[in-house]
TrEMBL record:
GO molecular function: methyltransferase activity
Pfam (any one): Methyltransf_12
Name under which the protein is recorded: Class I SAM-dependent methyltransferase
BP terms from Gene Ontology: methylation
Keywords assigned by UniProt, alphabetized: Methyltransferase, Transferase
Gene3D superfamilies tied to this protein: Vaccinia Virus protein VP39 (3.40.50.150)
InterPro entries given in the database record: Methyltransf_12, SAM-dependent_MTases_sf
Residues annotated as domain Methyltransferase type: 55-152
Length: 267
């Protein structure tokens, strides 16, 4: 594992913040006007959050976090990028989410950064786990942040999709690959590229579904459900068709592209 993985990833995400805030992909003005970035299945599976405390780990610049606030939760967002937290705080001000709180911290240090506070709901959204080398430590941290009787909710891209070739038609990569992958790429997933001065190097890890579930169970959480979804939220492969979400064409074998789970802590 590269010794500088955390510094490299933080610097890269610091550089992504202004690009993402200005992007059509995130459509900040549309969000301020009332747009809903949370997916329908997330809203249904998390359920009513009114009056509940919710912590969003790896929250980026806070759109999903603040959406939960709009649905009635008292929210805290945590991210290791200070520019992201500053942007999230500014966005909270724009929509009048006066009780929303954002904290700068690496996810592994979240318990101390939040002074041992516990939450009714700990939420982790799409594209978060690939930035973490140690899921056992992540699960222990997340479990420590869940209040008794509360739950962790995770929505993620399914690791099976990572074995498919870029055309989405054949199996090309190793599902059980567990070494760090280092990328040197100035592009980002929104409609733009990083500034020339922004660091382009990132370090990522692939985590199988069994690894995720086993880590959470070992941390003392009880899996309530694990749902695998045959759709995704972006054009991961050129063969996918867009009908509100992205799916393989009708008539061809389906594979899981996303998953979601809910894991509770005994009261």
């Amino acid at each position: 594992m590269p010794d500088d993985w955390l510094a490299a990833n933080r610097a890269n995400w610091d550089g992504r913040v202004p690009v993402h805030v200005a992007s059509e992909f995130y459509d900040v003005d549309g969000f301020v006007a009332g747009g809903e970035p949370l997916r329908d299945f997330e809203l249904a599976e998390v359920g009513d959050v009114k009056g509940k405390s919710l912590l969003h780990l790896q929250c980026h610049f806070g759109q999903d976090t603040l959406s939960w606030a709009r649905h009635g939760a008292t929210v805290t967002g945590l991210d290791f990028s200070r520019p992201a937290v500053e942007a999230a705080t500014g966005l909270a001000g724009r929509i009048g989410a006066d009780t929303a709180r954002f904290v700068v911290s690496d996810v592994y240090d979240a318990v101390s950064a939040l002074d041992g506070r516990r939450f009714d709901i700990v939420y982790t959204g799409l594209g978060a786990l690939c930035w973490l080398p140690d899921l056992t430590r992540w699960a222990r941290t997340a479990a420590a942040l869940v209040a008794p009787g509360g739950f962790l909710y995770l929505a993620e891209f399914h690791p099976f999709a990572d074995v498919l070739a870029e055309d989405g038609r054949t199996v090309e990569y190793d599902y059980f690959h567990n070494e760090a992958t280092v990328w040197d790429d100035p592009s980002t997933y929104t409609d733009g590229e990083l500034a020339p001065t922004a660091p382009a190097v990132t370090v990522e890890w692939q985590h199988g579904l069994g690894e995720v579930v086993s880590a959470l169970v070992a941390a003392g959480l009880r899996i309530e459900f694990l749902h695998e979804h045959d759709f995704t939220v972006f054009a991961r492969f050129p063969v996918l068709e867009h009908h509100g979400v992205f799916r393989f064409p009708e008539g061809r074998p389906r594979v899981p592209l996303m998953y979601s789970l809910r894991a509770s802590k005994p009261a």
